[in-house]
Amino acid sequence: MSSSSPSSPPVRALIFDFDGLILDTEVPIYDAWRENYAHHGQDLALEDYTGCVGSDFNRFDPKWHLENLTGEKIDWDHWDERRERRALEIVNSLMDPMPGVLDRLREAREAGIPCAVASSSPRSWVEPHLERIGLREFFLLTRCVDDVEKPKPSPELFLAAAEGLQVPPAECLVFEDSLNGLIAAQAAGIRCVSVPNRVTAGLDFTGCALKLDSLAAMSLAEMVGQI
């Protein structure tokens, strides 16, 4: 699929983030963290939490942050179980992908463009949800944090996905909701369509090839025509 600029490489493969891009998991997870904080008389500011969205806790550790705020050593075995159970209850109730995801995947299939998932989450999280919402069949492969040494913003996940698809990075297109994902795509030499969600909407996505409010905003052909 050709872009509007003669100097731009064609788009021969698509790489999708998972959390907050395919499935609206970011909001329930953030809300579950906020419940943990509230039980300790604290609030988890969104501008702090977004540091770990799309990555791991090396950039922002909400556990360390809460202990620092309270001055207490917290029993994380108890609170992790409680938070993860609450988030999973909500996520498991989500039966539909984010708006536009299914339409764009169908367009890619019709155009013969292979698709992959590249996620900083573990495979044990990504694969079951893809199967549950009926999207696994659209992806030739998935690359998860289990497959690389470093999560986003390292480019490793995107490079691994491109390698698996057997398409040069410059001829791939990434769809991302997080700033860490955009940074990873840029480091991998892959054009990125940024699609912020309610958690990441306040971040600065300067440098993305295209920014959309939703994947339902335009067709795949229209996106490629604008990058």
Number of helices: 9
Total count of strands:
6
CATH superfamily of the largest domain: HAD superfamily/HAD-like
pLDDT < 50 stretches: none
What is the H/E string?
A: EHHHHHEHEHEHEEH
Nearest-angstrom radius of gyration? 18 Å
Please outline what is shown here.
With 227 residues, the chain is α/β, with parallel strands linked by helices. 41% of the residues lie in helices and 10% in strands. The termini are close together.
Written account of the structure:
With 227 residues, this protein is an alpha/beta fold. It has two domains: 13-24 and 97-226, HAD superfamily/HAD-like (Rossmann fold, 3-Layer(aba) Sandwich), CATH 3.40.50.1000; 26-92. The chain has nine helices and six strands, in the order βαααααβαβαβαββα. The chain has helices at residues 26-39, 46-49, 62-70, 76-92, 101-111, 123-132, 156-165, 179-188, 220-226; strands at 13-16, 115-118, 141-143, 172-176, 191-194, 210-211. The protein has a six-stranded parallel sheet. Strand 4 (172-176), helix 8 (179-188) and strand 5 (191-194) form a beta-alpha-beta unit. The chain is globular, with a radius of gyration of 18 Å. The mean pLDDT is 92.
Secondary structure blueprint with pairings:
Blueprint: E1 13-16, H1 26-39, H2 46-49, H3 62-70, H4 76-92, H5 101-111, E2 115-118, H6 123-132, E3 141-143, H7 156-165, E4 172-176, H8 179-188, E5 191-194, E6 210-211, H9 220-226
Parallel strand pairs: 1-2, 1-4, 2-3, 4-5, 5-6
Helix pairs in contact: 1-4
